Amino acid sequence: VVSLTGARFGAEADSFFEAQGNRPRIGQLFLVVDPGGFAGAAVYHERVGALVAAMCAETGVRLPGARREKLAARAVEQGVEVPAQLLQTLRDLAGSG
């Protein structure tokens, strides 16, 4: 992708946060593919499902967002602990002292 967009490789850029030096040139490429034009959407979804199931069967494998979903479900079930001082600050800001 870097060579297609003309962006710099990581080692060629100094920092995003420094005014001086060799600034990064961000390069993004979006490729959109309709699986229906190949094996078909149903086959695509079945194969992706099989891949995800195989990955999840392996020890230590995490899918992006899995931890967030688990924490969100736990928060819905058990609530979220908020320190008393922070809760009071939030109440004060909301005007409900």
Can you tell me about this structure?
There is one protein chain. The protein is an all-alpha fold and 97 residues long. It is 46% helix and 0% strand. The protein has four helices and no strands. The chain has helices at residues 2-5, 41-57, 66-78, 84-94. The longest helix is centred in the middle third of the chain and has 17 residues, at 41-57. The protein is flat and about 60 Å long. It starts with a helix and ends with a helix. The model has no long low-confidence stretch (mean pLDDT 87).
What portion of the residues fall into strands of 2 or more residues?
Answer: under 5%
Give the low-confidence spans: none
Secondary structure tally, helices: 4
Please, what is the oligomeric state? single chain
Compute the gyration radius: what is it?
A: 23 Å
Major sheet description: none
Number of strands: 0
Helix- and strand-based class? mainly alpha
Question: How many angstroms does the end-to-end distance come to?
Answer: 53 Å
Q: Specify the helix fraction band.
A: 40-55%
The sequence of SSEs as H and E is HHHH
Q: Kindly report the average pLDDT value.
A: 87
In one word, what is the shape? flat
Please sum up the structure shown.
By secondary structure, this protein is an all-alpha fold.
Primary descriptors:
single chain, 97 residues, 0% strand, mainly alpha, 46% helix
